[in-house]
Design a protein that fits this description.
Elements: E1 23-28, E2 40-49, E3 55-58, H1 59-62, E4 66-69, H2 75-80, E5 89-94, E6 114-123
Antiparallel strand pairs: 1-5, 2-3, 2-4, 2-6, 5-6
Length: about 120
């Protein structure tokens, strides 16, 4: 377990309009195994809406990490997690087309730019 496992992150909100491309920022660089496309990852994460700043999901609120295959996730995670190392914390700012699609797409987050802070706890 990394030291970041116990502390829920706080998101620093950027100024200006939302980006139109995926923005990847390493907040802490890990020193463990590297995540690759197609891996299954174990993470803690926080998701907030770019425009409103409101939190829409957090594994910390549930009190446990979650594990899932990268290929089953939104494109922003599929593109943004590979290269990350276990023990790291990364912030992804994901435009709608790499998240839940354009407004009216049927998902409550369709049309929204999303910010995720992800702690990578394990890969396999």
């Amino acid at each position: 377990m990394s030291g970041t496992d116990a502390t829920k992150p706080e998101v620093e909100f950027p100024e200006g309009p939302p980006p139109t491309e995926l923005v990847i920022a390493d907040l802490t660089v890990g020193d463990g195994a590297q995540a690759n496309p197609g891996d299954t990852v174990r993470v803690h994460y926080l998701g907030v809406d770019y425009e409103s700043g409101s939190e829409f999901d957090s594994s910390w609120n549930r009190g446990e990490s979650i594990e899932f295959p990268l290929r089953g996730l939104i494109k922003g995670w599929q593109d943004g997690i590979p290269g990350m190392k276990v023990g790291g914390r990364r912030q992804l700012t994901i435009p709608p087309e790499l998240a839940y699609g354009p407004a009216g797409g049927g998902h409550r987050l369709s049309g929204r730019t999303l910010i995720f802070v992800i702690d990578l706890l394990g890969v396999r």
